[in-house]
Amino acid sequence: MRPTSAALALAAALCAASLSCTAQSPKARFQAPPLPGLSAVVTTVPPDKLGASHGPGCPVPPERLRLIRMNHWGFDGGVHRGELIVHRNSVRPLLHAFGKAFEARFPIRRMRVMAEYGGSDAKAMADDNTSGFNCRRVTGDARQLSQHAWGDAVDINPVENPYVDRRGAVHPPSARANLRRTPVQPGMIHPGDVLTTAFRDIGWHWGGRWSNPDYQHFSANGD
Predict the structure, then answer these.
(1) By C-alpha distance, which of 164, 158, 170, 166 is closest to 126?
(2) Cβ contact 177:143 at 8 Å
C-alpha cells in the first residue's frame, strides 16, 4: 500500500521532533541500493604480494608489474574483492575484459596473488584460483618459460576450465570431468561468451582453441 500524504507528513514531523531516527520518507526506504561496480584500484606491487612468484632471472622486474584490486562476482552470487598481478602494459586492457565479465555477473571462484600459493601453479589450479603473473615454466613443458612470467597472461577458473598439456595430462586432475564442455556450467568459458568476446576485443587470445586446449588461459601474444 502506498503511504498517504498524511502519513508522509507525520513521518516528517516525527523526524523533525527527534522522535524518529530516520530522515528518509517511507517511500525512500523501498528504493533498491545501487549495484556494485568493478571498483578497481591499481598500485605498484608490495614485495610480500610477489613472494615466491618472482625471483632471480625473471624477465620482468617488479617495478614493471602492477597489483589490481577489483571486485568480482562469486559462485555464491555475492561480490568479492580479488587481487591480480599483471604487467603494467596489461592493466588497461584487462580492466576492460574483467569489467565486461563483472557486468555480465560471470562467476569467478577466487582471485588471489600467486604468492599465497608459494608460486605453485598446481596448488593454485587445484584451489580454482584465477591468477596472472607468475615467473614459472610452462606447466607440463619445463623447456620454456610460461607467458605468465611476463605478466601478460591470465588463467580463469581452472577447475571449470582445465588445461591439457602436450603429454595429455589434465590440469588440475580434479577437473577431468570438465573436459566435456556441454552442458555449459557456471564459470565455464566457451566460444562466443562474454569472456572470449571481451578478450578478443582487447586483442588477447584464448587457449581453448589450441590443439591441446587450455580453456582457462588468455594471453596477449597467443602463447
Answers:
(1) 158
(2) no
Mean pLDDT, the chain, integer: 88
Cβ partners under 8 Å of residue 78, min gap 6: none
First to last CA, the chain: 60
The HSE-up count of residue 118 (CA atoms within 13 Å, CB side) is: 3
Contact predicate 171/136, CB 8 Å: no
> Before 107, cis peptide (omega within 30)?
no
CA distance 118 to 15: 56
Instruction: Yes or no: say if 204 and 150 are a contact pair by the CB < 8 Å rule.
Output: no
| pLDDT band, residue 44 (cuts 50/70/90) | very high
- Do 109 and 188 meet the contact criterion of CB atoms below 8 Å apart? no
- Of the pLDDT bands very low, low, confident and very high (cuts 50, 70, 90), residue 102 is very high
The residue among 165, 149, 151 whose CA lies nearest residue 207 is 165
Q: Is 97 helix (H, G, I), strand (E, B) or coil?
A: helix
Per the listing, cell 618472482 goes with 54
> 3-class SS at 206?
strand
